[in-house]
């Protein structure tokens, strides 16, 4: 699973900002992080705005670690599989060893 960060300029004259809103609204809540709507940014100048770098740093320093911790907590809260279920599965995977017959009539 990955989080999705939507960044879109409000003055984009190639792809309207409404597309960014629509994308954000379609992302499952588990994958959402706060979007960045860069006021006054166009289609190819978003990185020139200071908030762009600030938002990327927040993603790396805060958002991703928080999601990682949540995921670890969820994993720890899941009930462990019982050993009997594991044994049952393992027993279906055991393949008997083949037996080899040797002849004693001197033929190799």
List the main descriptive attributes of the protein structure presented here:
108 residues, mainly alpha, two-stranded parallel ribbon, 3 helices
List the topology elements.
Blueprint: E1 7-9, H1 17-26, E2 36-38, H2 50-77, H3 83-92
Parallel strand pairs: 1-2
* Strand content range: 5-15%
Looking across the biggest beta sheet, what order are the strands in? 1-2
**Uncertain segments:** 82-102
Order of helices and strands: EHEHH
- Judging from the principal axes of the Cα atoms, what is the shape? elongated
Helix percent reads 40-55%
Main beta-sheet strand count, sense and barrel state = 2 strands, parallel
* Rg, alpha carbons: 28 Å
The class by helix and strand makeup works out as mainly alpha
Q: Termini distance? A: 59 Å
Per DSSP, the total helix count is 3
Task: Give the overall pLDDT as a whole number.
Answer: 80
Number of separate strands: 2
Descriptive report:
Strand 1, helix 1 (17-26) and strand 2 (36-38) form a beta-alpha-beta unit. The chain has a domain at 7-79. Strands 1-2 form a two-stranded parallel sheet. By secondary structure, the protein is mainly alpha-helical. The chain is built from 3 helices and 2 strands. The chain starts with 6 loop residues before the first strand and ends in a 16-residue tail after the last helix. The protein has helices spanning 17-26, 50-77, 83-92, and strands at 7-9, 36-38. Helix content is 44%, strand content 6%. The model is unreliable at 82-102 (pLDDT under 50). The relative contact order is 0.13. The chain is elongated, with a radius of gyration of 28 Å.
């Amino acid at each position: 699973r990955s989080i999705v960060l939507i960044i879109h300029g409000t003055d984009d004259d190639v792809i309207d900002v409404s597309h960014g809103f629509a994308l954000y609204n379609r992302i499952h809540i588990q994958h959402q992080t706060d979007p960045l709507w860069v006021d006054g940014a166009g289609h190819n100048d978003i990185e020139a705005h200071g908030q762009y770098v600030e938002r990327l740093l927040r993603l790396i320093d805060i958002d991703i670690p928080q999601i990682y911790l949540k995921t670890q907590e969820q994993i720890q809260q899941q009930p462990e599989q019982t050993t009997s279920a594991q044994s049952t599965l393992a027993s279906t995977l055991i393949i008997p060893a083949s037996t080899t017959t040797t002849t004693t009539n001197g033929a190799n």
